[in-house]
Design the sequence.
């Protein structure tokens, strides 16, 4: 019998959040820690000010959402985004662009805008990130349906362990328009960014250790936060964010594959 593998681990330096009723990480942490009630509201996605005007006009809500969460995490840490490796995770990319392209192909005028086409690829957010931040570091874009956040976290932890360098994970999702929404109903726009480092940063010491398990995923009980968690793949991160917000050591199990989950232990340094 083989020896059990050591868990993948890294330190969380900073976090960015943007979602329904959650304007940023401090407000999300207050809600998740039980310091204030959760009040659902439409996600207000800001324009990507870091992009040049021409590129800014071409972006859709999905790209703006991903950039907003990522920029919050980078800004809070004072990190050098140009040298920061990134992992972008989304279950479906830009559903609105997909719908528009499908509608165009089904019409009598089947000419697709080149801008719409290049915004449809799954690594569009990564491309706009590199333009906005002049980032030339490696970037990975992936999807794993409802387990996309866990897949992204595993990838980011693996890269941190192998490279010995910081990695920024950005998981994001926006709702599909009809008729796609009827087949893939997502509850709203949500994004989370985790800046992971191989060593603890000064004044910040939260370590994550991840292993694969065959346990049921943790939920958030009843109410709006659980509806958000269950309704948006990127929001499957909420049980982990809740544990981090409460400044305690503990363990959560996150959705990943049908019969395999990701257990994450949060360790507060002494």
Sequence:
């Amino acid at each position: 019998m083989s020896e059990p593998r050591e868990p993948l681990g890294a330190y969380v330096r900073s976090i960015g959040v943007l979602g329904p009723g959650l304007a940023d990480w401090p407000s999300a942490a207050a809600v998740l820690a039980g310091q204030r009630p959760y009040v659902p509201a439409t996600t207000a996605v800001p324009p990507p000010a870091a992009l040049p005007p021409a590129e800014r006009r071409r972006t859709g809500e999905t790209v703006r959402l991903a950039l907003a969460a990522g920029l919050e995490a980078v800004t809070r840490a004072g990190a050098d985004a140009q040298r920061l490796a990134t992992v972008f995770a989304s279950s479906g990319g830009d559903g609105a662009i997909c719908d528009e392209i499908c509608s165009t192909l089904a019409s009598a005028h089947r000419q697709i805008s080149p801008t719409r086409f290049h915004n449809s690829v799954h690594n569009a957010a990564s491309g706009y990130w590199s333009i906005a931040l002049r980032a030339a570091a490696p970037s990975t874009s992936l999807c794993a349906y409802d387990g996309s956040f866990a897949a992204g976290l595993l990838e980011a932890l693996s890269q941190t362990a192998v490279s010995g360098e910081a990695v920024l994970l950005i998981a994001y999702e926006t709702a599909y328009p009809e008729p796609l929404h009827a087949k893939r109903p997502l509850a709203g726009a949500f994004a989370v960014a985790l800046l992971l480092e191989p060593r603890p940063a000064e004044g910040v010491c939260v370590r994550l250790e991840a292993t694969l398990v065959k346990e049921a995923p943790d939920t958030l009980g009843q109410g709006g936060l659980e509806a958000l968690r269950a309704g948006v793949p990127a929001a499957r991160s909420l049980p982990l964010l809740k544990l981090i917000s409460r400044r305690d050591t503990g363990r959560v199990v996150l959705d990943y594959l049908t019969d395999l989950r990701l257990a994450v232990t949060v360790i507060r340094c002494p």
User: Anything to note?
Assistant: The mean pLDDT is 91. The first strand starts at residue 8 and ends at 18. The radius of gyration is 18 Å.
